[in-house]
């Protein structure tokens, strides 16, 4: 019989990486790393002594021949672009003032933030070892990690920071030899950033608070994402979030190797997005005139995401979910705030929808999109025009339509969506819509459009069956708001029938449930290429900056691993919670150290003692 202690020892050595790479081989040699570790950044192509290298005239470019074992680019000559020393890691570039984000910005940011993660907010891993464990001793070190070679194997495409799905290769190869030399190779800057993220997860802080080491040398990692679109959707209309609250979520999602950040920025409850051409929109539509995102804020958030290889997708949900426009332009909105029987006219109060046959609405949307889209296009290839939960009865009260008949409404909706998508395309962007536009309203969409599903696995199957690219995010698994109970106050007259006040999508979806999702569920093999990824959704009726971190994390991490690593392990089996849980616990600790208030998923007792907290373990 296998000794349980043997199992414990084994498990305590295999944690670290989240999400799980395609392949990860490692030894058990301890290597310390010092703050003066040198980062060398090499890149392919023409001799390039661009602006970054120019700032360091003492460091002349020199050539670096690739090793034959690092892929098909063996013959390619890489040239040194920049060498980083300890003093480089804290100079904050003026990345926030320029327009657009380049691959060089991404690598520079990734190197600096990885250095800070390694040396400022690293993890003392006591929760992952038994009591009285043998912590590596800094006295024993003979060699350490001395050099980190960053090897960008190909020149980046110009849209590296705002690709369409699949246009940027995020794969990387990470090697760390016993002699202390680390190499991260990738075909794109984003791949380098992903590799550096993995690199930081190999290291721990010593309890002396001074030393940092990895117990895993030598290491070889080959990695690439399974799905092209891996994101979180954050609703910042139902509750107000500061720019810092939003950036914290971006940091967390980048650390989980997610690459899309969907900002559901407006809704019926508030319009916090400032539109200079329509100044009253936010001045009156926001909860408070000062609770707004200025153009500068919007740019800052988009840049902050893009520089971490995360493309922001801004959503203006319409024609439903728009009542907040009423505060500035009442003539554009039908069925505003019908009470008390709001549920005939909308999914949640306040009701209100953009009128569907109104030239005033059309002119308003021209102005709105003309103002906003040119500020999106430097940072994203997408724009989300919404389209969920449109209530037909609201158009009985729309003086431009006065009907809830599908035969009347459908052609108007087609025109409404066509005009919006023409505006989006004219700005060089690709439209994203909620599934109802296609599946309930039968709107004919351009073949470029991505359809975001939320209601069922069957909806995903129908979207791809019709030939459209689909995003998954079934509310039964990936809605992070569910299970908190009703936010509506139930009248005593119906209290008994509503008892015990569950919300519509209860119960709470725990990480194990989120983790068990197969994005291909019910999709025939020949259509699976159209399932390009998915998003977990944070709707915020009952979430604000106080609890948002723990509402999203680490459940968002479970979603991130499904989308990066795929729902099946290397043997084609469903991923095991027994494998995932210590790694997810460690990811949670690392997120906390990065400033994200992620929830614990277990007691230290479970992670310290390996196999004590399993149920039904069969030994494989
Ligand atoms: C880079 O691209 C090549 C050729 O397409 C591919 O074989 C390799 O896996 C990619 N990734 C890395 C990290 O080299
Ligand atoms: C839409 O508006 C136009 C012009 O105001 C009107 O002629 C037309 O009948 C309206 N369509 C519907 C379906 O009400
Ligand atoms: C359409 O509106 C009429 C008139 O208000 C109403 O009686 C009917 O139930 C509505 N149809 C639907 C499907 O809600
Ligand atoms: C869309 O098509 C379905 C099936 O033909 C139909 O039941 C539904 O009423 C249509 N929706 C609209 C808004 O026309
Ligand atoms: C694997 O997970 C799926 C859900 O994605 C579930 O339906 C199926 O039963 C699981 N298979 C096994 C063998 O547990």
Automatic annotation (TrEMBL):
It holds the Pfam family Glycohydro_20b2. GO terms for biological process: carbohydrate metabolic process; glycosaminoglycan metabolic process. GO terms for molecular function: beta-N-acetylglucosaminidase activity. The active site is at 389 (proton donor). Residues 227-566 form the Glycoside hydrolase family 20 catalytic domain. Residues 17-202 form the Beta-hexosaminidase eukaryotic type N-terminal domain. It catalyses: Hydrolysis of terminal non-reducing N-acetyl-D-hexosamine residues in N-acetyl-beta-D-hexosaminides. Keywords: Glycoprotein, Glycosidase, Hydrolase, Signal. One of its GO terms (cellular component) is membrane. InterPro entries: Beta_hexosaminidase_sua/sub, GH, Glyco_hydro_20_cat, Hex-like_dom2, HEX_eukaryotic_N. Residues 1-16 form the signal peptide. Belongs to the glycosyl hydrolase 20 family. PANTHER family: BETA-HEXOSAMINIDASE. This is Beta-hexosaminidase.
């Amino acid at each position: 019989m296998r000794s349980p202690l043997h199992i414990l020892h084994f498990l305590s050595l295999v944690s670290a990486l989240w999400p799980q790479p395609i392949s990860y081989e490692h030894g058990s040699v301890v290597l310390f790393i010092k703050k003066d570790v040198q980062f060398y950044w090499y890149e392919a192509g023409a001799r390039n002594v661009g602006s970054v290298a120019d700032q360091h005239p003492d460091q002349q470019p020199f050539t670096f021949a690739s090793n034959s074992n690092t892929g098909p680019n063996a013959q390619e000559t890489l040239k040194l672009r920049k060498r980083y020393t300890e003093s480089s890691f804290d100079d904050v570039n003026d990345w926030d003032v320029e327009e657009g984000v380049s691959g060089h910005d991404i690598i520079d940011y990734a190197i600096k933030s990885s250095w800070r993660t390694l040396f400022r907010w690293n993890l003392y891993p006591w929760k992952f070892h038994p009591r009285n464990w043998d912590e590596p001793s800094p006295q024993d070190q003979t060699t350490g990690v001395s050099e980190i070679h960053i090897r960008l194997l190909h020149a980046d495409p110009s849209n590296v920071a705002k690709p369409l799905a699949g246009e940027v290769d995020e794969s990387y190869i990470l090697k760390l030899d016993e002699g202390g030399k680390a190499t991260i190779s990738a075909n794109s800057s984003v791949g380098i950033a992903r590799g550096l993220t993995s690199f930081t997860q190999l290291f721990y802080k010593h309890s002396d608070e001074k030393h940092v080491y990895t117990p895993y040398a030598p290491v070889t990692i080959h990695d690439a994402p399974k799905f092209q679109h891996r994101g979180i959707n954050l609703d910042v209309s139902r509750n107000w979030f500061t720019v810092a609250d939003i950036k914290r979520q971006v940091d967390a999602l980048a650390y989980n190797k997610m690459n899309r950040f969907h900002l559901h920025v407006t809704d019926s409850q508030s319009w916090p997005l400032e539109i200079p051409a329509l100044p009253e929109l936010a001045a009156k539509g926001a909860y408070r005139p000062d609770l707004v995102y200025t153009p500068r804020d919007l740019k800052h958030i988009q840049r902050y995401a893009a520089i971490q290889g995360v493309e922001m997708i801004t959503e203006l949900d319409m024609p439903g979910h728009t009542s907040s426009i009423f505060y500035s332009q009442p003539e554009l909105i039908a069925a505003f705030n019908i009470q008390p029987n709001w549920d005939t006219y909308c999914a949640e109060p306040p009701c209100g929808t953009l009128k569907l046959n109104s030239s005033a609405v059309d002119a308003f949307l021209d102005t709105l999109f003309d103002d906003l889209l040119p500020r999106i296009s430097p940072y994203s290839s997408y724009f989300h025009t919404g389209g969920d939960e449109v209530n037909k009865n609201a158009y009985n009260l729309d003086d431009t339509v006065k009907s809830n008949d599908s035969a009347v409404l459908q052609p108007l909706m087609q025109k409404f969506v066509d005009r919006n998508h023409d505006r989006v395309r004219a700005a060089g962007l690709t439209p994203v819509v909620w599934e109802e536009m296609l599946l309930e309203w039968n709107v004919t969409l351009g073949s470029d459009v991505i359809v975001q599903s939320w209601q069922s696995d069957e909806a995903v199957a129908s979207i791809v069956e019709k030939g459209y690219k689909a995003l998954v995010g079934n509310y039964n698994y990936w809605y992070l708001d569910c299970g908190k109970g009703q936010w509506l106050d139930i009248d005593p007259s119906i209290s008994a029938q509503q008892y015990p006040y569950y919300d519509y999508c209860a119960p709470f979806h725990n990480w194990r449930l989120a983790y068990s999702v197969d994005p291909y569920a019910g999709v025939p093999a020949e259509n699976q290429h159209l399932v390009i990824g998915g998003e977990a959704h944070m709707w915020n009726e009952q979430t604000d900056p106080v609890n948002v971190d723990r509402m999203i994390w680490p459940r968002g991490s479970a979603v991130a691993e499904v989308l990066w690593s795929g729902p099946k392990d290397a043997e084609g089996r469903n991923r095991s919670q027994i494998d995932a849980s210590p790694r997810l616990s460690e990811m949670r600790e690392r997120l906390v150290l990065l400033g994200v208030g992620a929830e614990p998923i277990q007691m230290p007792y479970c992670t310290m003692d390996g196999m004590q907290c399993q149920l039904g373990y069969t030994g494989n």
